[in-house]
Amino acid sequence: MHLHDATPTLRLGAPLAKARGVVILLHGRGSSAEDIAGLVNLLNASDLAYIAPEAAHHSWYPHRFLVPPAQNEPWLSSALSRIDTHVREALDAGIPAERIGLVGFSQGACLSLEYAARHPRRYAFIGGLSGALIGPTDVARDPVDLQRTPVLVACAEADLHIPLEHVEHTAASFNTFNAAVTQHIFPGGAHTVFPVEITWLQNQIASLPGA
């Protein structure tokens, strides 16, 4: 059962056949594809294809990301499958994995990070904006190799939705996954996208071949 398959997908930027790369954008709980697509104007790279799927009922999974993953099934597996569909779509269009970026905010950030941990390969970049790996910090994970994929793990230090312990654990985990990790902990408790995160994403896009 793929619970998110019937929801719309917003597509912006260059068509896949002509795109220098692809960025898959994942919105947060209660948000929409249109909301997360607002990042496209900030990233300012019209030669990329942007794919923004939308969650059923605007939520990728029902409970907080902190609970054991089984408690968010079958929604979690459906959400990860939706991401995989779009990754494979890009690969089938001839875009290599190292030109595919995943960017998510909040619940979408958790999904982006979780997908990368479960589907290891060399990506263009993974942007975890106010998110962390899904599940308790003691969830057992297989050793994987992300082949130095740039990974951003960033959050406010007092974010009410994302405990700092989980953010720090996620950054440490991705270091063991052979990712090139950038960690930012911002003062305060704002649950938002920070300018430093946008700059990081812009720099990753600028470093893609063919810029």
Describe the 3D structure.
The protein is globular. It has a single domain, classed as Alpha/Beta hydrolase fold, catalytic domain (Rossmann fold). The longest helix has 18 residues. A seven-stranded mixed β-sheet has the order 1-3-2-4-5-6-7, sandwiched between helices. The protein is built from six helices and seven strands; from the N terminus they run ββααβαβαββαβα. It has 211 residues and is α/β, with parallel strands linked by helices. Helix content is 30%, strand content 19%. α3 crosses α4.
Give the DSSP E fraction (strand runs of 2 or more residues). Answer: 15-25%
Rg of Cα set: 16 Å
**Would you identify the CATH H-level superfamily?**
Alpha/Beta hydrolase fold, catalytic domain
What structural class do you assign from the helix and strand content? alpha/beta
Distance between the termini: 40 Å
Topology:
Layout: E1 9-13, E2 22-26, H1 33-36, H2 39-43, E3 49-53, H3 75-92, E4 100-105, H4 107-118, E5 125-129, E6 150-156, H5 164-176, E7 180-186, H6 195-206
Parallel strand pairs: 2-3, 2-4, 4-5, 5-6, 6-7
Antiparallel strand pairs: 1-3
Helix pairs in contact: 3-4
